[in-house]
Specification:
alpha/beta, Rossmann fold, 7 strands, globular
Amino acid sequence: MSYDKTQATHEFTRWSENYDRCILQTLLFQPAHRAIIKRIQARFADRPIRILDVGCGTGVFAARIRDALPSAQVWGVDLVSGMLSKGAARWQRHAECVTPIQGDSERLPFATGSFDIVTCANSFHHYPHQDRAVAEMHRVLKLNGRLMLVDGYRDRPWGWFIYDVCVAHVEGAVHHASAGRFRELCGQAGFGQMDQRVYRGLAPFLFTEAVAEKSPVPAPHFRLDPSEVKVAA
């Protein structure tokens, strides 16, 4: 059975009850967040930038970005209203600089060329149509903007066992893309100048960074500037 958005919604609605307290926050999410933030700081220093976090969940990563990069404006988008609702207190604390939006990674509700950076941390394996999601991430980036995407590294025996056996047993038919597949997806979407790094550990992860070297193709169905998009309730 293939994995779909209905399954993802049900799964993450249940998970939202203990998402901020789960062991993956320490084992996988925190190291991945640190790696992305370190790379953003190296690329952009303290310049004012617009960042979109796709699959933002309860806003843990969006808040960490803002704490580390006080000149950044951050938007978070997630398919599941329950995840966004569980982060209500966090969204309120950062209301002036972090904006949560309910939306679909395959149809991001933003105008073409809106962001300097798009991040996606540890949620990509839940996307049923990964090619469409990467294409949308490219579309909303400015020319020469950067995609910074982290997901489980399954190209070695331990990672394969963790992600393709254990995680798939718990979460269903999710798909952790190989490093080669990430390169293929990014190339098809119009990205170039790709860099991939593997972070070892009990839960190894792959960091893929790619530059939007081709001008994005406008999408007539989404023309709003991020500041005009309605905030999730």
